[in-house]
Design brief:
The chain is 43% helix and 9% strand. It is of the alpha/beta class and 388 residues long.
Length: 388
């Protein structure tokens, strides 16, 4: 099931987060379609839920993970089907658009949709009606759509992997959700929130964060964002002693480091300016090694171009395929065969990545193969607690 209730805490203590909250609540009062852009684990679903809760819509909020469906199923799941529309369709069934009528439909990982489904989604948004598979009867819709992605849709449009007309239809109102490392004022409040949440479950009392633990939390890059912070605190509570979490209790071993600096503004929205004291705190929270990532190293580009020249001079017969396969294999191995993270590193959707992985024999030829993803990235139902 691709329905999801995954997000757990939405806290707005950092000035940048407070400005974001004001923007979100202004957007919520309208009926505009919203595109939420942010890295995995930043709380895109909670932003969508907050938009719904602050709107005047009386219908349900339904969250659907587009990346969790196979190509053969997502059409029927989104738009519904009639009896006999395809093999196994023994009875008519409404899709998620119909189920969300009068409310809000949240489509996560919108960048994973195939071009064919993008055309159908565009038609639904334009005509405000849906036609089930196997039917010719349009069904009127009153649904607010909130879409989310961690894919750079500008690049996807330029590469002709995402329709430009759908992109502009989705991004009537755009919310850029910064990664956790750009919201240093939220890190410790979130950590204390998770301490309270998991202390109750573990039957612990009065657990606090030691000064060295606080410093370690602020200095870390948080490639997994809020979801990673939650897991780090959960583990620390299990192993800590004497009611205090120390730096050695924090298992911060993210397999990925950020490929871009937190200070680079998003192309989707204007950067929010931090006050001087927050800017200073933010600089302390970012490791010094990140400074050299601000610009791509010219030496690395020169080495890459030199290698390409050697391949061309050697008369490599299938140069493009050779380079593409080497890139896919290298990224997949570096990410420890984690498809979610590999797609993120390469800047492509998981559906496109899976096509390449099958092509190069790195995974099986069926869509049902196992994916390396964390439990929090699966479509399991989880309790939601919004702390504002």
């Amino acid at each position: 099931m691709a329905l999801s209730i995954r997000a757990k805490a939405l806290l707005f203590h950092d000035p940048r987060s407070s400005a974001l909250l004001e923007q979100v609540e202004r957007i919520a009062r309208s009926d505009a379609t919203v595109l939420v852009i942010g890295e995995t684990g930043t709380g895109k679903e909670l932003i969508a839920r907050h938009i719904h809760s602050q709107s005047e819509r009386k219908g349900p909020f339904i969250a659907v993970n587009c990346g969790a469906f196979s190509e053969s199923l997502i059409d029927a799941e989104l738009f519904g089907h009639e009896t006999g529309a395809f093999t196994g369709a023994t009875q008519a069934r409404s899709g998620w658009f119909e189920a969300a009528n009068g409310g809000t439909l949240f489509l996560d990982e919108i960048g994973d949709l195939s071009m064919a489904l993008q055309v159908k989604l565009l038609r639904v948004l334009q005509e405000r009606q849906v036609v089930r598979l196997g039917s010719r009867r349009p069904i009127p819709l009153d649904v607010r759509l909130v879409a989310a992605t961690n894919v750079d849709l500008h690049k996807a449009v330029a590469a002709e992997r995402f329709r430009s007309d759908l992109f502009y239809r989705l991004s009537v109102a755009t919310v850029n959700l910064p990664p956790l490392c750009e919201r240093p004022g939220d890190i410790l409040p979130l950590a204390r929130h998770f301490i309270g949440l998991y202390s109750a479950k573990l039957k612990l009392e009065n657990v606090d964060l030691g000064p060295d633990a606080e410093a370690a939390l602020l200095a870390y890059e948080w490639p997994g964002n809020i979801r990673e912070l939650e897991n780090v605190i959960h583990y620390a509570l299990i192993v800590c002693r004497d009611g205090s979490i120390r730096s050695e209790d924090l298992r911060m071993v993210g397999t990925l480091h950020r490929s871009r600096p937190a200070s680079v503004p998003s192309q989707y929205s204007q950067p929010l300016q931090l006050p001087p004291e927050q800017q200073q705190r933010h600089l302390h929270a970012v490791p010094a090694s990140r400074a050299e990532e601000v610009q791509p190293a010219p030496a690395l580009r020169q080495r890459l171009e030199s290698l390409f020249n050697e391949f061309i001079e050697a008369g490599e017969p299938v140069l493009f395929d050779t380079v593409e396969e080497a890139l896919i294999r290298t990224a997949y191995a570096w990410c420890h065969q984690n498809q979610v993270q590999t797609a993120k590193v390469l800047g492509i959707s998981r559906n496109i990545l899976r096509t390449h992985l099958k092509r190069f024999g790195l995974i099986g030829g069926t869509d049902g193969g196992a994916e390396s993803s964390t439990p929090a990235e699966s479509g399991q139902f989880r309790h939601i607690s919004i702390a504002l």
